User: What shape does this take?
Amino acid sequence: MDRNLIAAVALSMAVYVGWFTYMERSAPRVSAPVAGAKTDAAHAGAPAPASPASPAKDEPLVDLVAPHATVGLNPRGASLASFRFQGPIGIVELVPAQNPGFFATWPDLQFKPAAARWPHSAAFEAKHPGGFFVRKEYRFGDKGELDLLHVEFKNPEKKPLDVPAWELNLGPGLGTVASEQADNHGLMRTIGLFPPPPGKKNPRFEVVKAGEAPKDWKWLALDNRYFILAAFPARAEFTGYEVLHDAAKTPTFKLTAAAEKLAPGAVSGHDIPFYFGPKDYPVLEGMKQGLEKSVDFGWFDWIGRRLLFVLRWLKGITGNYGWAIIGLTLLLQVLLFPLTLKSIQSSAAMRKVQPEIARLQQKYAKDPTRLNQEMMELYRSKGANPMGGCLPMLLQMPIFVALFNTLRGAWELHGSPWIGWVHDLSARDPYYILPVVMGGVMFVQNKLMAMPTADPAQAKMMQFMPLIFVFMFLKFPSGLVLYWLTSSLINSAVQYALRTPDSDLQGGAK
Assistant: This one.
């Protein structure tokens, strides 16, 4: 038995299994949707389930049509209780439950609508039991602009009044599109951008965990795969933050403002810019706030960001992200052609030495050490390398993983159609056509590159490899399957064109 060939195949299998294990661990566990989450049906008027922590009857909301969403504001706590965003495949409710809602201050305090000071804004006022008035005004800007929450305290008395420490919550939970509800609970994160460490220039993006001591920040946020609510509270006005989880492990980012004293007749204002919406990479990058760092490209972040840049460029040329993926695959294949050629040459050389390997196995069947030495010498003399065929696959794995995360996490690809039945390149093929065709192409590719072997188990394993890949790819984003299918087609064409067993091109093994 050719031990080195077996080792090469085993290494390839280890790469596949290791990659699949990574995807399983990095992908979210399927769990129930956040309690009280409103689906797309709820936006159309169907009743949404009530959160166990919410009152039996929701407060009537004050609606506001903002430039990029329809907003519902809850007079109790003057909170952001509904944020209905028009996405590419429907309306999305981003606030899972309206009580207490996001940005609630003193959630038991009943506010009354007041005159707004800015366009696309809504204001509320209430008198606090401490004697001072509280005014909250939400202002919503255009796409690519930060929104603003203005909180104002006024002392109507002729004596000083104390404003106790107050809180703002990001959460609990964050809504998403209906197709992502099953995964949403495991995808929600509490994150932040923090000043650079001593001696460094770039700010640090971090996932904030419960129990961590507060530190300086640039912004703090709650996000999931496609959406983010990020707040920019002034560090001088807020004493810190805390990550909380309810019984269902739903996260909340609680921000605490410092207590203050109001002189007679004094007014104190606090501006809290925030962003609430999709993780649209070009938009976030254009805001120059570092919010684009929230787009998760996984381990190979630097590759994923560049792939997205190229995809956007190709989409501008082709007008369609499906054709852009095909164009990207062609570009990658051109760049990887020297490695592909080396793989073909190595496979051809291995095919040519198989008869001699079989003779050595018969001759040294009882001397494994000598057999290994003789095979290594044969490989050297014929220019054959059992591991040579694996190199292109190994080098493509980082690209594959980065593209997987790009297609799953990039807002630009969410809801992007290709042709016919493929209506969303970030979702699986609804009819499994692409993965089945991909498996057929891989079967043909294996036939073209097949090496004769006396080991039936080894031959069976190689025959079943396309089937294994089909099952692996069934639920992967159709854009990713399109990439792998296109790559397999190109490789098969190249292998067929260079399939001349006695040619010097295929290894020089004459």
Remarks:
- The chain has two domains: 3-28+308-506, 40-296.
